[in-house]
User: Which sequence fits this backbone?
């Protein structure tokens, strides 16, 4: 080969080498697939997301089950604790099973609503499955005959099921009952409400937290054992003397997004029915409460040394009775609707102190005399049969205190569901 031929050959070889080198400078390779039409990376071959994820809680455990994904070689399980928390992966290596048991420590995990998602792993990781939410705890039976809770089985959880309570059910000291989406706690009444009649009782001496979503509220109700209709005034009674609500951090006892039906109306003035705060303090938020009809009224009673935070709720045939000085407590009654009730009553009159603004922004039917010293400005007065409207109360001899004008139109009050 001549020198010129040799140089020509070497030049061609160098040119080919440079071209090959230039093609590799952008990070691709000769065997790489072309980008997709959107200019992004090649489409993933990851399996489809798992489906039908379900979570079932029991004491100290939450069991997960899901449907298999075609092409998956394993699955990752993710869990988040509480609203807004970032999910963490529980599986170090992918699990080949379509089930997973998550042990929950107590008391750290008590009352924590855990949210789970699962991904499928194959040639990549799939999007997450549907979310499943629950908490650990002992589930109530369909018919709960024991009548009380036990510390060694606490916390208790009611969700997505109906539990029939025969007579009294006590949430005992040192125990907790959590009520979640769709739960129904149904008290069985077996006697006609004549003198001496004792209604079924929910007696809360520990912690109760009912926090279902507004899309799937929980229900507390009553029925007759013989299947007939409840008699006039017949229902169940709720007495709270348990772990108080803490306004600072939202912990403690709370009834939220609940329907409470057939609150016992009591026997005239001998025994009051309804919902009684007998110890500590309870918050009732975004709830619907209905009283039984004896004398047209049940009561939400705030007794000596106690308080209630009642807001954004609807009360039908339930009046508010206050028997203590609540002016320096967290007591607050705001943005509620009272119907078919003499809305506010002091018992006994003259010994109760309510600070201005603690009862405000409500839509009230009327006031049951005798009443005195109640600062009731900044409420709307709808009036009701048997209860005088506001103008006649301005000079009422009972001494009702109105520290400002009433609201001229109904406020935005009551539940949002």
Assistant:
């Amino acid at each position: 080969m001549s020198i010129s031929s040799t140089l020509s050959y070497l030049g061609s070889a160098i040119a080919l080498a440079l071209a090959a080198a230039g093609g590799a400078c952008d990070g691709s390779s000769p065997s790489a697939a072309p980008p997709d039409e959107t200019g992004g990376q090649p489409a993933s071959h990851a399996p489809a997301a798992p489906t039908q994820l379900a979570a079932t809680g029991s004491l100290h455990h939450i069991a997960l089950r899901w449907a298999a994904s075609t092409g998956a070689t394993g699955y990752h399980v993710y869990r988040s604790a509480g609203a807004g928390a970032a999910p963490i992966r529980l599986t170090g290596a992918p699990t080949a099973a379509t089930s997973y048991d998550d042990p929950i420590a107590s008391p750290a995990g008590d009352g924590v609503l855990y949210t789970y998602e699962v991904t499928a792993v194959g040639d990549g990781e799939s999007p997450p499955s549907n979310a499943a939410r629950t908490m650990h705890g002992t589930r109530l039976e369909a018919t709960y005959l024991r009548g009380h809770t036990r510390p060694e089985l606490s916390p208790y959880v009611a969700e997505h099921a109906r539990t029939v309570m025969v007579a009294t059910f006590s949430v005992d000291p040192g125990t907790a009952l959590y009520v979640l989406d769709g739960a129904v706690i149904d008290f069985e009444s077996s006697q006609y409400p004549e003198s001496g009649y004792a209604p079924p009782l929910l007696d809360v001496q520990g912690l109760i937290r009912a926090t279902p979503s507004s899309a799937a509220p929980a229900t507390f109700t009553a029925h007759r054992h013989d299947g007939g209709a409840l008699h006039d005034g017949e229902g169940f009674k709720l007495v709270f003397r348990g772990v108080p609500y803490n306004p600072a951090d939202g912990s403690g006892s709370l009834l939220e997004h609940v329907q409470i039906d057939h609150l016992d109306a009591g026997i005239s003035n001998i025994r009051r029915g309804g919902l009684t705060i007998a110890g500590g303090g309870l918050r009732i938020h975004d709830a619907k409460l209905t009283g039984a009809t004896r004398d047209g009224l049940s009561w939400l009673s705030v007794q000596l040394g106690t308080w209630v935070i009642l807001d954004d709720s609807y009360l039908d045939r339930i009046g508010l009775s206050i028997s203590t000085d609540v002016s320096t407590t967290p007591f607050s009654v705001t943005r509620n609707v009272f119907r078919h009730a003499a809305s506010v009553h002091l018992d006994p009159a003259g010994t109760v102190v309510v600070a201005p603004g603690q009862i405000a922004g409500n839509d009230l039917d009327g006031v049951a005399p005798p009443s005195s010293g109640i600062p009731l400005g900044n409420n709307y007065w709808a009036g009701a049969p048997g209860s005088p409207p506001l103008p006649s109360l301005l000079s009422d001899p009972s001494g009702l205190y109105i520290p400002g004008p009433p609201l001229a139109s109904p406020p935005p009050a009551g539940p949002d569901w």
User: Anything to note?
Assistant: The helical segments are 3-24, 390-393. The two ends are 94 Å apart (CA to CA). The chain has two domains: 51-134, 138-393. Residues 3-24 form the longest helix (22 residues).
